[in-house]
From TrEMBL:
This is Trophoblast glycoprotein. GO terms for cellular component: axon terminus; dendrite; endoplasmic reticulum; plasma membrane. It holds the Pfam family LRRCT. It comes from Ictidomys tridecemlineatus (Thirteen-lined ground squirrel). The chain crosses the membrane at residues 358-378. Residues 61-95 form the LRRNT domain. Residues 296-347 form the LRRCT domain. Residues 1-37 form the signal peptide. PANTHER family: LP06937P, TROPHOBLAST GLYCOPROTEIN. One of its GO terms (biological process) is protein localization to plasma membrane.
Length: 422
C-alpha cells in the first residue's frame, strides 16, 4: 500500500511531461511549414469569396425618399411629391406604398426591373394624382395580388392597362383585388374624351380576359350613371363587387349571370328606383350572393309590385326590413315589406309645388279672360257700329264684283260697253 501510494505522483508527473512534449512538437511542425499554412489560409479565403460571388446580388438599398423595413418586406414612399416610380427599389419589397405623390402618368413597364420585383404582392398608388395609366404599366410584377388606384382623377385608362400589350387569354393577370373607387376625373377632362367614363373603365376590365382570376373589385363613389352591358363579362371568378355611392338609376342592361361565385354585391347609396323581373331572376340565381340595397330612392307605384313580392320571399337581401319608399309623397317612409298590391298604383299625382304652379297659372288666365270680356262689354256700341261699317263695305265690294260678272257673261252687254267706250 505505501509503495502504491508513492508511485502515484511519479506517474502523474510523467504524463504531464509527455503532454508538454507533444505540444512543443506540434508547435515546431507548424512553424517549420509556413508555406503550407499560408496556402491553406489562402485557399479557404478564395473558397469563401467564390461562394459569395456565386450568389445572385440582392439589392437591399432603400431609395432616399422612402422608408424601408426588410423585416416587414415593406417600402413606404408616402407624401414625397414623387413624379415617377423610384428606380432603386429593394428586391425584397412585398408591400409598396406610393401614396400622396404627383405621379400624373404611369408609363408602360413602370415597375420593370432587372432582376424583377418578383416578391411585390401589394401595390398602393392611391391619392397620387394619376391621370393616365398606359398599356402594360403593371407588367413584370408576377406576384402582384392587390392593386389600389383609388382617389386618382383617372381621365385615361388604357384598355390594356391590366393586360399589357398581349391580349392572349393564356397569360392572366395575377391580380386578386382591384380597388378603383373615387377615380372619376373632373368634368372638363371628361368632355375631351370621345367615350364615356363608364365605357373606359369597362374596356380596361374586359380586354384580353386578363382579370379572369380577379376576386374583389371596388368601383364605389365614381358617379356611374349606368353599367355597360359587358362590364362584368370577363370576371367569372369575382367574389366581391362594390358599386356603392354611385348614381345608378337602373340595372336593366348589365348582366350578373356569369358571376356564379359572387358572394357580396353592394348597391347602397345609388339612385335605383325599382329592380325589374330580369334583374331579380339573375340575382336570385346566384347561389352564394348577399345583396345590399340600402339608401336608394325607391318609387312605390304599380311597377314596384313584382319587387315587393320578391323581397318578401328572398333571403339574399341583407337588411331588407330597412328598405323604404321615397316617392310618391303619400308613400314616403313606408316599409317595402309591409306594402300590399292595393297600396301600389300609378295615378299621376303631381307634387304640391307643381300643383300650386298650375293653380296660379289658372287664376292668371281667368283674370285675363275677365278683363278682355269687360273691355268688349264697355265698347259694345262702338264694336257694333264698326261691324256694320265692315258689313256695308263688304256688300258694296261684292255688288261691284257681281255687276262685272254679268257684263262679262252677256255678249250684247259686252259690245254695248265697248261701243260706249268708243
Amino acid at each position: 500500500m505505501p509503495g502504491g501510494c508513492s508511485r502515484g505522483p511519479a506517474a502523474g508527473d510523467g504524463r504531464l511531461r509527455l503532454a508538454r512534449l507533444a505540444l512543443v512538437l506540434l508547435g515546431w511542425v507548424s512553424s517549420s511549414s509556413p508555406t503550407s499554412s499560408a496556402y491553406s489560409s489562402t485557399s479557404s479565403v478564395s473558397f469563401l469569396g467564390s461562394a459569395v460571388s456565386a450568389q445572385p446580388p440582392l439589392s437591399s438599398q432603400c431609395p432616399p425618399m422612402c422608408e424601408c423595413s426588410e423585416a416587414a418586406r415593406t417600402v413606404k414612399c408616402v407624401n414625397r411629391n414623387l413624379t415617377e416610380v423610384p428606380a432603386d427599389l429593394p428586391l425584397y419589397v412585398r408591400n409598396l406604398f406610393l401614396t400622396g405623390n404627383h405621379l400624373a402618368v404611369l408609363p408602360a413597364g413602370a415597375f420593370a426591373r432587372r432582376p424583377p420585383l418578383a416578391e411585390l404582392a401589394a401595390l398602393n398608388l392611391s391619392g397620387s394624382r394619376l391621370v393616365e395609366v398606359h398599356a402594360g404599366a403593371f407588367d413584370h410584377l408576377p406576384s402582384l395580388r392587390q392593386l389600389d388606384l383609388s382617389h386618382n382623377p383617372l381621365a385615361n385608362i388604357s384598355p390594356f392597362a391590366f393586360s399589357g400589350n398581349n391580349t392572349s387569354a393564356s397569360v392572366p393577370s395575377p391580380l386578386d383585388e382591384l380597388i378603383l373607387n373615387h377615380i372619376v376625373p373632373p368634368a372638363d377632362q371628361l368632355l375631351k374624351q370621345n367615350r364615356s367614363f363608364e365605357g373606359m373603365v369597362a374596356a380596361a376590365l374586359r380586354t384580353g380576359h386578363a382579370l379572369r382570376e380577379l376576386r374583389s373589385l371596388d368601383l364605389g363613389s365614381n358617379q356611374f350613371l349606368y353599367l355597360p352591358r359587358d362590364v362584368l363579362a370577363q370576371l367569372p371568378s369575382l367574389r366581391h363587387l362594390d358599386l356603392r355611392n354611385n348614381s345608378l338609376v337602373s340595372l336593366t342592361y348589365v348582366s350578373f349571370r356569369n358571376l356564379t361565385y359572387l358572394e357580396s354585391l353592394h348597391l347602397e347609396d345609388n339612385a335605383l328606383k325599382v329592380l325589374h323581373n330580369g334583374t331579380l331572376a339573375e340575382l336570385q340565381g346566384l347561389a352564394h350572393v348577399r345583396l345590399f340595397l340600402d339608401n336608394n330612392p325607391w318609387v312605390c307605384d304599380c311597377h314596384m309590385a313584382d319587387m315587393v313580392d320578391w323581397l318578401k320571399e328572398t333571403e339574399i337581401v341583407q337588411g331588407k326590413a330597412r328598405l323604404t319608399c321615397a316617392f310618391p309623397e303619400k308613400m314616403r317612409n313606408r316599409v317595402l315589406l309591409e306594402l300590399n298590391s292595393s297600396d301600389l298604383d300609378c295615378d299621376p299625382i303631381l307634387p304640391p309645388s307643381l300643383q300650386t304652379s298650375y293653380v296660379f297659372l289658372g287664376i292668371v288666365l281667368a283674370l285675363i279672360g275677365a278683363i278682355f270680356l269687360l273691355v268688349l262689354y264697355l265698347n259694345r256700341k262702338g264694336i257694333k257700329k264698326w261691324m256694320h261699317n265692315i258689313r256695308d263695305a263688304c256688300r258694296d265690294h261684292m255688288e261691284g264684283y257681281h255687276y262685272r260678272y254679268e257684263i262679262n257673261a252677256d255678249p250684247r252687254l259686252t259690245n254695248l260697253s265697248s261701243n260706249s267706250d268708243v
